[in-house]
Amino acid sequence: MECKNCGFHLNEDDDYCNSCGAKVIRNRLTIRNLWEDFIEKFFNIENTLLKTYVTLFKKPEDVIHGYVSGIRKRYINVINYFALAVTISGIQLFILLKWFPDRMDISPLVADSTPEGFVNMDWMYDYYSLIVLLNLPIYAFIAFLVFYTLKKYNFTEHFVSMTYISAQYSITTAVITLTTSVIGFNFYIVGSVLNVFLMFYTAYCYKRIFKLSMGDILIRTLLFVGIALVMLIIYSIIQMGVMILTGDFQKIIEAEKAKRGITYIASSVMNWTS
Q: Among 5, 27, 236, 249, which residue is least crowded by beta carbons within 10 Å?
């Protein structure tokens, strides 16, 4: 036989290719063997999803630095882990938007005077995966600046770190936010609280990866937050400028004026009728 993946010559009793390591497939694709392949890939003893998940909490440096240094078989690949996290988060959002839309009200976190156009989050749900993916290089760049003096990781290696950390956070919090939303808590309020966990978890991972003292990681965490806030302010200014130039800002203001005007008229009529 020849390996269907790389063409290497195989013996009849080989279960795996000695060249590329691919499993020898002898049967036609069915639902059963498709499911068995999934279970073997993510839940086998040697390379389990559970093993990757637990180790990212207990010894994150084993997974993250291991992958960076060339250990690629012991844990789930960073891209696969991120894809799994996005899938779980997508399912979570679908369930909440379908059956618990009232838990997705962001108004408790914004001022009453904020125009409705600024609190409409529907666009974010449509492009959730893309937004998460675009945020990763930003986080990686900030980490690259914060830990630059250590001369240990380049930008791409920080990108791998942030991808693992983000995926771990998404998988963990998806279960928490879904559960708390079902029992009645607001999705965004719970998410805001969990963002504190993300900050501490990121600091914990980098402390172990770079073997830093508590004082050192505290200073670098504050620096990370400071740079992130500056970049957020710059982004907000750019976004506001684009909205002004395109006329979207004026449309939002006019829509809000019209809304408040209608509310005022309705209230006056009710008072006059009374």
A: 27
